[in-house]
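Quick one:
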Amino acid sequence: MGNKIRKDYFDNMGFIYKFWYRVFIGIELILPFSLIRKYIFKNTKEFSDKWVLVHTLLSIGSVFIIQYIDLGILKKIFLVYGAIRIFEMIVYQINVLLFHPYKAMVKDNHDIKNKYSIQNPYRSVVLLGHNFIEIVCWFTAASIYFSNDSVPIIKALMQNTIRIFTFNYEQVAVKLCVLQYIIFAEVLSGMILVIVSLAKFLGELLHVDLEYEQDNKNNAD
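Output:
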C-alpha cells in the first residue's frame, strides 16, 4: 500500500518542483488543520478523522443556517470559513499527490530505503467521499447566500451538484463579487482533485479474488 521512494526520482526534479514543494508545504503548515493538530492534538490519525467528520457536519449545517437563520454576520462567517476549508482541502490533496513523498525522503535524510505510504487506502476513499460532500454543501451554502432565489434545500443541493460538474455558474448569483470568483475557482479545483485522488486510491484497494475464494470454499467442503 505504498511505493518505495527512490532518490533518483527526485534528483532530477529541478527548480520548479522544489519551488512549489516549498510553497505548498509552507502553506500546509499554517492551515487550521495543521495548527490545531500540532498545538492541541497529538494523535494524527484520530484527529484527521474527527476533523473531516466535524467539517462534513458543519458544511451540511451551513446550508440550513444560511437558508433559515436571518443573521447576516453568522452567514458571512460560515461563508468565509467554507472558502478557507475548501482551500485547505485543495492544498492537502495536492501535497498528498505530489509533495509528501519528497517530504518524507527529505525528513529521513534522503534515505532511498524509506517508504512513503498512506495509512489505509480504504480510509482515504471514505475521507474523500466526505470531502466530496463538503464541497457540494459549502458551494450550495454560498449559492444560497448570493442568490435571491429561495428553493428547498434538497433541490438546491441537486442543482449545485449539477452546476459543479457542468461548470454552469451563471445562475448562482445576480451580481458577482471577488469572494464568489474565489469560491467558484476553489470548488472547481477541489472537485477535480477529489476525483483524481479517488482514482489514485481506488487503484490501491486490495481486490478480492472471488474465484480463488470460491475454490478454497469448495475444497473445504
